[in-house]
Amino acid sequence: MTAPADLTPAERRVWQAFPRGEGVDFRESPDEDPAAGASWGPERTVRAEVLRALLVGGPTSDGDIAGLKLTGARVSGQLNLMYGTVEHAVRLRSCHFEQAPNLYGARLPALVLSDSVLPGLSGGNLRVDGVLRLSCCRITGPLRLQGAKTSGAVFLNGARLGPQAAPDAPGTPDSPGSPDPEASEEPVLQLNHAEIGTDVWAVGLVARGQVRLNGATVGGQVNLNDAELHAPPGDTALHAENLSVGTDLHGMRLRARGRVNLSGARIPRQLNLAYARLSNPEGQALRASSCVIGELWLRDAAPIKGTVNLRRSQLDLLHVPPEVWPARVRIDGLSYRTLAPHLPAAQRLPLLEREEGGYLPYAYEQLTAAYRTAGDDGAARRVQLAKLRRHRRTLPRYARLWGHLQDATVGYGFRPMRAAGWLLLLLCTGAVAFALHHPHALKPAEAPDFNPVVYTLDLLLPIIDFGQEGAFAPRGGYQWLSYLLIITGWILATTIAAGASRSLSRQ
User: Fold this and answer.
1) For 333-337, what is the mean pLDDT?
2) Are strands 200-201 and 222-223 parallel, antiparallel or unpaired?
3) Side-chain half-sphere CA neighbours of 150 within 13 A
4) What's the mean pLDDT in 394-405?
5) What backbone phi and psi angles, to 5 degrees, belong to 24?
6) ∠440-446-448 over CA atoms, to 5°?
7) In angstroms, rounded to a whole number, what is the distance separating the alpha carbons of residues 285 and 294?
8) What distances in angstroms separate CA 214 from CA 236, 347, 507, one per listed residue?
9) What CA–CA distance (Å, rounded) separates 211 from 186?
10) Model confidence, pTM
11) 88 C-beta neighbours (distance < 10 Å), count
């Protein structure tokens, strides 16, 4: 294909370099900022229609691998490759695009736009046989990659997305000066239902608007370490429902203002949010319901501002320090095998009181199972006791009396030594009282020698008969004392039996 006659000197350089796959660098210095590209003159301006002509049917050279390798250019017009098939790698680094490229349905071997400035990118159903590099790009409009497929990775590390994608955009996820009111309602990054062959690498990504990954399939990991996701108040910062990854989702030091929605996600290894800061005070800060996750880490994270929803999720390891949990949680149906770090039950139990749905017996059973898995039977018994006390608060006032009685006497069967203490106290009280004032013998000629200790035991123990109770009859106040000992003996015997039955049922 011969070159068009109206090529500018800059375009002719690109045209001549294309067949040999050579690079053309228009930059005056390596640290030049492409954000100033609107002021670049014709000496470094290339029309998008010229680039399209090269990519669709440009010249080739025998023995060379053709390819577009352009750095520091201003691209005027729209690069439209809609439904096109490109057989050459496209590398447009540190370029300034006047209009958003249209790559909808296109197919390319590789696409590199690193360090470029774009008003947007339309790449729905894009097919890339290699990698898609958007590292350190500044894209002020929506980045549409829904339904895209890549055999390699997608690189978004250091990229800045959204209306405030300038290098000096102010604000942090917790600062009132963040420019969220100007954020577009359309997600700034759309990777929903995309199929990524290896990884999504987005370390240090800054997105001022919603990042959408729902329904995406990633063969490797999603890495959002040190990323900042800013959404308008009450909106979703990361929408990743039904996301499926091959290994991990990393979000160490992630700062997200807005909901992080991972409902239905499949993460076989780690969901690592260590040192993260999640904030959505008016709603859910983290929604990871109905997920299957190997390990959930929130180690050394800041206290979460907003509700955490882990309903019906399945985890192998849950590593969340107590101080990270917010005031409201939803953990109905949450199952896990191991808790970390290992802490006393007293530090874990307050979380169960924060459940928005109220008393959940399963949550206590799950915590008990985790302690038993760790071999801490004492903590497991304490959780079970807390469960019964919490259940007691849900009963009518009149029905709580029996529970209070079991709790005070034998700790619902978890404190059997309490019964021995009560019995010893009552035995001493009765023995001293009846030693000072012997009860009257009903048949003095037939009555055995009076023993105050055995007589008190005869009153306290409802089944055993030592022959003392039937032979002597106290009078006055001592008669009322005998009645009290008989009643308390029956109560203690009943509560001990109930506690023993409950203890045996747990074995």
Assistant:
1) 95
2) parallel
3) 25
4) 75
5) -125, 120
6) 70
7) 21
8) 12, 35, 44
9) 10
10) 0.80
11) 21
